[in-house]
Amino acid sequence: MQRYTPGNSRWLPPALPGFAHINRYWDRSRDGFVAKILPGEYYVTRNEELIATVLGSCISACVRCRATAIGGMNHFMLPQSRADGDGAWTGTTVDAATRYGNYAMEHMINDLLKNGASRKYLEVKIVGGGRVLKQMSDVGQQNIEFVKAYLQAEGLTVSGADVGDIYPRKVYYDPRSGKVSVKKLRSLPNDTIFERESQYRSHIEIAPVGGEVELFYGAIR
After folding, report:
1. Domain residue ranges of the chain, discontinuous segments joined by +
2. Cα-flanking dihedrals φ and ψ of residue 34, to 5°?
3. Whole-structure pTM over 0.90, yes or no?
């Protein structure tokens, strides 16, 4: 059943199974529905709607099937070693970081394929990985390097990218057309983005390496 969205006369199209918890709303300025994802979340849709997020050092992969127009976007970062002041990875830390990154990518791609996407028609664009906090190691660059290496290993070509630099980004992704709109935020009215990423980073750094990876902080599955 379609859900009515308060404050307007629109009916929110049903989300795919497993994504009912994602914040979705009618955006008057864009004249369309928007699904907003937070750090650690991802969203897959076949509806006519945008997927939005705000990125600091985190990275998003925007992936869609050109044949069916089903697509999705994630928002993640790799956990960092607290033992090494310069942010370098060693031993177990590298393995843990890779597991989190693989989890973020594989689960979204698997959900795309499960809902009708064809792997040979997948189109991938990547956004984010900014060095937004000077006092931190360049975790953004490490996120960029990971996602590029992952996609290359999976035989998936990056058709577009807006990564690096020192600015946070506000991102809107249209899975039906493949268009990614990016606005670099040269000044922020508050530190919400930094608080969210710091909270997310703290969560994934204390999560156990062994067993099942719980990447999606704050999400209800």
Report:
1. 22-206
2. -135, 135
3. no
